[in-house]
Design goal:
Elements lengths: L11 H25 L2 H12 L4 E5 L2 H15 L4 E3 L2 H4 L12 E5 L9 H9 L4 E5 L5 H5 L2 E4 L15 H21 L3 H7 L3 H7 L14 E3 L4 H11 L3 E5 L5 E6 H6 L9 H4 L1 E2 L4 E2 L4 H11 L3 E7 L5 E8 H6 L4
Parallel strand pairs: 1-2, 1-3, 3-4, 4-5, 6-7, 10-11
Antiparallel strand pairs: 7-8, 8-9, 11-12
Length: 332
């Protein structure tokens, strides 16, 4: 039997080498998984998509931990799902599974005894089973309508015992199922936004109109205004920018700190129209915070107006955002 090689805490190179070895082992196994995907994967996706009920995920031990994550990912991407612990299932929770559901069973060996009760129940009520295991000839695979067999790969553990490579493969395969079904459903950015109103994801998907500055907070000045008035607007509002508008309130251009520097010698004798940068880049109010921040970063600007465009292509300012607003909501 292969013995465990102990690392010395003072041997940095050996520690790094061991870490790299683990990552390499799991990366190679993932490549094997990619190459092994076949029509069974397609059938699994179609089975999940066609379910009238939920995707019930189960697994024991480390496979159960992967199952919990898989159920959360399915639910977050448009496929109602929840995890059922096999032990609890045998003590009444079998009632959580009903006809119309799909049962996704995760087991590295495929022989986990605790799974028998939920597999028997699925057969009794004609719930299709999707099995994920590394042994095709196993009870889980024998009960499965769709068999997703993991490639034969060593665990990263030197004794080939601790679930490492196998759980990485399970996780990746479940993610692949969830993402493929998400695309088959046509689950869009809007759907993600509805299911993720809070946390970092919620902030990334937040429409820019929901945190823009509007009304009297907008730094606006008439096109014929003398520059000392424009500079006063820029200073008092604190955005480092002024929107220059026509008599009907449509945006003609912007004046920025850069424009002031370029026209420094003539500021006392020119109007806003003569200094402004015409047709500036603007944002749509429905644009996500993440997308809006990307625009600002790509253009290397610190503020932008949110506009509404009419049938004639004229742009009416609705609000303004500054790079600091994105930091305030946890982005940037």
């Amino acid at each position: 039997m292969e013995t465990t090689v102990l690392l010395s805490h003072s041997d940095s190179k050996a520690i790094l080498a061991r870490g790299a070895e683990v990552v390499r082992t799991e990366r190679e196994a993932l490549s094997m998984l990619e190459d092994s995907l076949d029509e069974s994967f397609v059938e699994a996706c179609r089975t999940i998509l066609g379910a009238k009920g939920r995707v019930i995920v189960t697994g024991m031990g480390k496979s159960g931990q992967i199952g919990r994550k898989a159920a959360a990912t399915f639910s977050a991407t448009g496929t109602p799902s929840f995890y059922v612990h096999p032990g609890e299932a045998a003590h009444g929770d079998l009632g959580m599974m009903v006809p119309g559901d799909v049962l996704l069973v995760i087991s590295n060996s495929g022989s986990t005894a605790e799974l028998q009760a939920i597999l028997f129940r699925a057969k009794a009520i004609e719930v299709p089973v999707i099995g994920i295991a590394s042994r095709r000839q196993s009870p889980v695979m024998g009960s499965a309508k769709v068999k997703l067999c993991l490639p034969a790969a060593r665990e990263a553990c030197r004794s080939n015992i601790a679930p490492t490579t196998s759980t990485t493969l399970q996780l990746a395969l479940c993610d692949a199922l969830a993402m493929a079904v998400m695309d088959l459903r046509g689950f869009t950015h809007e759907g993600m936004k509805m299911l993720h109103p809070g946390g970092a994801i919620g902030m990334r998907l937040l429409p820019v109109k929901d945190f823009m500055h509007y009304g009297i907070s907008m730094p606006l000045a008439p096109a014929e205004a003398p520059m000392h008035e424009v500079i006063s607007v820029m200073t008092s509002r604190g955005f480092g920018i002024a929107g220059i508008v026509d008599k009907e309130g449509f945006l003609l251009g912007v004046v920025t700190d850069g424009d002031l520097r370029r026209h420094f010698d003539s500021l006392s004798s020119v109007s806003a129209r003569e200094v402004m940068t015409a047709m500036p880049k603007c944002l749509d109010g429905a644009m996500s915070a993440e997308a809006a921040l990307e625009v600002l970063n790509d253009l290397k600007i610190t503020a932008a107006f949110i506009v509404e465009t009419d049938a004639e292509g004229r742009r009416k300012p609705q609000g303004v955002v500054h790079i600091h607003d994105f930091v305030r909501i946890g982005l940037g």
